[in-house]
Amino acid sequence: MAACRNVTRMVHCGQIVSPWGLQIKRAASLSHAWCRSIASDFASRTPTANTVELLGKPYISDSYSNITKKILSKVGKNLHNRKHHPLWLIKERVKDHFYKQYIGRFGTPLFSVYDDLPPVVTVEQNFDSLLIPQDHPSRKKGDNYYLNQTHMLRAHTSAHQWDLMHSGLDAFLVVGDVYRRDQIDGTHYPVFHQMEGVRLFSNHELFNNVSGGESFCLFEQGHRTPHKQEMHTMEAAKLLEYSLKLALTKLVAHLFGDGLEIRWVDCYFPFTHPSFEMEINFQGEWMEVLGCGVMEQQLVNSAGAENKIGWAFGLGLERLAMILYGIPDIRLFWSEDARFLKQFHVPHVNQKIQFKPFSKYPPVINDISFWLPSDKYSENDFYDLVRTIGGDIVEKVELIDEYTHPETKRVSHCYQITYRHLERTLTQKEVSNIHHTIEQSVVQELGVEGRF
Ligand code: DAH
């Protein structure tokens, strides 16, 4: 146990500031087999061997490489393609909705769906293609998993927008696993799943689509549906915004049923303007479930669709599934436990499911505190290390105390680590072993001075 006494209390806020500069509670997921191999796993993040092989391709490591073995082991799991998995169910429900709602000229679905694009993308695809500036904070090594300076695990499915538009597509959905270095708690996991949607229109198509007999009754509360006559005079950008909000309102109404309360929050993304987040009222709390906006014309033009305008959105599948099915902890998505998986074996994807939690096993809580190194220290490095060593038995890591020594000005952090296995009771001995290994590694790998 760490020495946490005599230190000042710090309030640690569960919310994070998203890389785009807005407050987002991000959805993630969680994994079953807790990691048994210990310090050597973490060591893999420092590129000793100078190539990493991923999905059959070698990547030469450099000073950017920071992918742990734990993360590598998630690549290719494709939970969203696993039949009857809750993430698969959500994907199928959204697909179903889009296929039925949007029919192309020949009676075929308008949207095409891509759910097996490899998660390794270039830094250019993930950032540059989306007009994200070179010095934008979302590019930080501390927030992403880089294979090297040129390649990374996608941080969002938006990384595929440009290529798909460039290949001539006007309407598509992309579903996939995305990777971000992050804090550890019940709603954050370094691998989670997103669905991207893009729709491009000619001016003519836009007007016909929006005014063409669609039902407007589902529109956000407090917003009046524009009359057909009014639409004639609306600017294309306003019409696009309207079309986007309508499409997404219908989607969540399809998923959650009528009576759902939603609200739109203005926000900022480099690739859309205007940009919004949709929040839904879940048991009295507003939860952000998606980001969206009218696509920046420069982006559309650069992908070769100069004569088109469009909108795009990105939604977090875990977040939706947690709300929709009442799944209490993001790690459960990675569970192989039949008591979890069986509950989603339903004959129809639209069948209502309310997850029945199986008994919660007791947690074991240990603290760790250390003096930070005088040079750079990143909290995400610490979280990665804890996740790599502790695996999915780590339920939560919380910074509970921060202390600055009045004379030396050195800073000490104290974190509380909650260990809990989802499927059995942990013994204090096995937790102590893991906790001790974390203590050793944190000193070795991050250069901190332990106060153990
Ligand atoms: N890529 C954003 C994220 O991960 C979500 C997003 C926002 C996607 C706006 C979009 C969009 O396509 O237009 O936070």
Mean pLDDT: 86
Strand order of the largest sheet: 5-8-9-13-12-11-10
- As a percent range, the share of strand residues is 15-25%
CATH class of the largest domain: Alpha Beta
Shape: globular
Q: Which stretches are low in confidence, meaning pLDDT under 50 for 5 or more residues running?
A: 1-18, 21-48, 212-223
The count of β-strands is: 17
In short:
This protein is an alpha+beta fold and 452 residues long.
Walkthrough of the structure:
It is a single chain. Helices cover 27% and strands 24% of the residues. With 452 residues, it is α+β, with helices and mostly antiparallel strands. The chain has two domains: 42-334, BirA Bifunctional Protein, domain 2; 364-450, Alpha-Beta Plaits (2-Layer Sandwich). Strands 5-8-9-13-12-11-10 form a seven-stranded mixed β-sheet. Helix 6 (203-211) packs across helix 8. The chain is globular, with a radius of gyration of 23 Å. Bound molecules: 3,4-dihydroxyphenylalanine. 3,4-dihydroxyphenylalanine binds at residues 156, 158, 196, 269, 272, 291-293, 312-314. 3,4-dihydroxyphenylalanine (DAH) is lined by residues 156, 158, 196, 269, 272, 291-293, 312-314.
